[in-house]
Write a structure and sequence with these properties.
about 260 residues; alpha/beta; 5-stranded parallel sheet; 3-stranded parallel sheet; 11 helices; about 10% strand
């Protein structure tokens, strides 16, 4: 079994516009799906993925309700486990977290740069504590974002400080931080959180991938692609180059995710 813990889709009506806008902002990134749910399912079949965790991001206060309604609709489709999102600056963010839990969404995605916050900002503490009280998983975009200029809100140092306020699982995407691998090794590897492997193929040296897994522990790694921006085959090629055992690969591809999602 293969579980992709980091994917994105958009409602059919806005997917072409969303993909075009995100690709342009990130320097012309090439999308490997059309950004729709059907496009992701096609990529999953082609790449041997059985289940995808779909992550949405609310980028303003008015959007969060519709973002989470869309996520809940994805949960009704076979092959998807959808997470919700809240806009941290929204006055009703904590109430929306309650609605997320009521709708059966397993977790939330937060993106410091898209949403305009630092992961370790004290203003985030009530939100983090509410997430923990509701038993939700949190996925952070971590490290650099190709569509934004520095400073970045999800650096390894900031992520480490934020961990103190969570009692439920936290995942730092992209091996703990895009283009932040020295910082990940110095500050995050070995801490009480998970990393996913998304968007790492051909963007990070093999040396760092191996070092981070060695220091952090294979039992806290989750397979991810960042679809539509990378495909399953791309990320599998990186993992297959790291001299991991079949048992270790099984943990990354599915066993750790099954434990987190109570499958």
């Amino acid at each position: 079994m293969v579980i992709d813990f980091h994917t994105h889709v958009f409602p059919d009506k806005i997917a072409p516009r969303a993909i075009e806008k995100l690709a342009d902002a990130s320097g012309g990134l090439y999308p490997y799906t059309d950004g729709t749910a059907d496009g992701l399912l096609k990529s999953m079949r082609e790449g041997g993925v059985d289940l995808s965790v779909v992550l949405s991001i609310a980028t303003n206060a008015h959007q969060q309700g519709s973002v989470n309604d869309f996520a809940a609709s994805l949960n009704e489709r076979e092959g998807f486990v959808a997470f919700g999102s809240v806009y941290p600056h929204a006055p009703d963010a904590c109430e929306e977290l309650e609605r997320i839990a009521t709708m059966g969404l397993r977790g939330v995605k937060l993106h410091p740069d898209y949403q305009g916050f630092d992961a370790d900002d004290d203003k985030m503490i009530p939100l983090y504590r509410k997430i923990s009280a509701l038993g939700l998983i949190t996925v952070f975009h971590a490290g650099v974002d190709y569509g934004y200029a520095p400073p970045y809100g999800g650096t390894p140092e900031k992520m480490k400080r934020a961990l103190a306020y969570f009692d439920t699982p936290v995942i730092a995407a992209h091996f703990g931080g895009v283009n932040s691998y020295e910082g990940v090794l110095a500050h995050l590897a070995g801490e009480n959180l998970y990393f996913d492997t998304s968007f790492a193929y051909a963007t990070m040296p093999k040396y760092y991938a191996a070092k981070i897994i060695e220091k952090h522990g294979v039992e806290r790694m989750l397979f991810g692609t960042d679809s539509p921006w990378h495909s399953p085959d791309m990320e599998k090629r990186l993992l297959s180059s790291l001299s991991l055992t079949e048992g270790e690969l099984a943990m990354i591809y599915s066993e750790n995710a099954k434990r987190l999602l109570h499958l």
